[in-house]
Write a structure and sequence with these properties.
213 residues, alpha+beta, eight-stranded mixed sheet, 8 strands, elongated
Length: 213
């Protein structure tokens, strides 16, 4: 598994026909942005296609991790108390990718007791159901998302939370391993190289048109 920076350098070497040169007019940071965009697109496409494929064979709902396993990152969050909300929260080190069915976050558990899991509900639903006896009687923990924070209900919040998610590509460090499925690296590099080839051809066409005029 490669890093984002390594993938960008491989694409740049192909475009330059050899080693990466500091004199190139293509910015490595810009190439990394395109790498991010391609990875996010691949994940979204695979999840949607996975849903379609499995739903054709079965009426049972598909678990997102069956499709996204290779893209998952795991983090342990130390929770703190928010006195304004009177709730414990954990701060995500990276934002999840925006995916259908809120599949960006696959699992939230108590890091000290993996048998304790938390289900996500929307902020609107929390406001509606917060004081209902049925919610308290269910004994099921829940969490809500506010920006980069995960807020837990006050019935049994964890001291440390274990979170399994599909990270937004731009949030992954340049030198961190880039979660990908086998075969994705070549697809991403090819797409980025094709993009720059199209851009270069278009720019040359403009120059030629100006000369002809």
């Amino acid at each position: 598994m490669a890093t984002r920076k390594q993938l960008a350098e491989r694409a740049l070497r192909i475009l330059q026909g050899g080693e990466v040169s500091k004199d190139t007019d293509i910015d490595l940071r810009e190439v990394m942005l395109h790498i991010d965009s391609e990875r996010d697109s691949i994940i979204q496409m695979k999840l949607i296609e996975g849903y379609k494929s499995i739903n054709k064979r079965s009426t049972a709902s598909i678990a997102a991790h069956e499709v996204l396993g290779s893209y998952v990152s795991e983090y342990t969050l130390k929770t703190a108390f928010d006195s304004n909300r009177n709730q414990r929260y954990g701060k995500l080190p990276v934002m999840p990718l925006d995916l259908p069915d809120e599949a960006g976050i696959l699992s939230v558990r108590d890091a000290g007791d993996f048998s304790t899991s938390y289900s996500r509900i929307s902020i609107g639903l929390e406001a509606i159901y917060l004081d209902l006896p049925s919610l308290a009687a269910s004994n099921k923990g829940y969490y809500i998302m506010r920006g980069d924070r995960i807020y837990f209900d006050d019935s049994n919040p964890p001291t440390n939370a274990w979170v399994s998610l599909v990270a937004l590509s731009s949030g992954i460090g340049d030198d961190d391993l880039y979660p990908l499925s086998p075969g994705d690296e070549s697809i991403i590099i090819k797409s980025v190289v094709e993009l720059y080839t199209i851009m270069s051809t278009a720019a040359q066409d403009v120059i030629n048109n100006n000369i002809d005029e």
